[in-house]
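Marked as duplicate of an earlier ticket. Keeping the data here for the record.
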Amino acid sequence: MSQENVVEFLRAIGDRPHLLNALKMRPKDRVVKAAADLGYPFTMAEFDQLIWDLEGKLAEARNEAFDQHFSLWQTMWGRYYLEVLAVDLMPSLLETRIR
């Protein structure tokens, strides 16, 4: 359930730019607290593990190495990581049907 909450939270803030904007500069513990307050509870460890797993699966689906040259990470320049996850990672996972 917690992994599903991570995904649903990222999708929710991806669809609500004002909320994403309010959260993107907050420390991870405050983002996790905000997620719980919105009804999507998960721990920092659950978040980290799921995101790394999903990024790795996406790299594999794209036939890319999961290293410093991974193309998703190239979109991060000048952006916050939370933005990349909500705006780029989640749609990419849907597109490739990775869960």
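See parent ticket for discussion. The CA atoms of residues 5 and 40 lie 5 Å apart.
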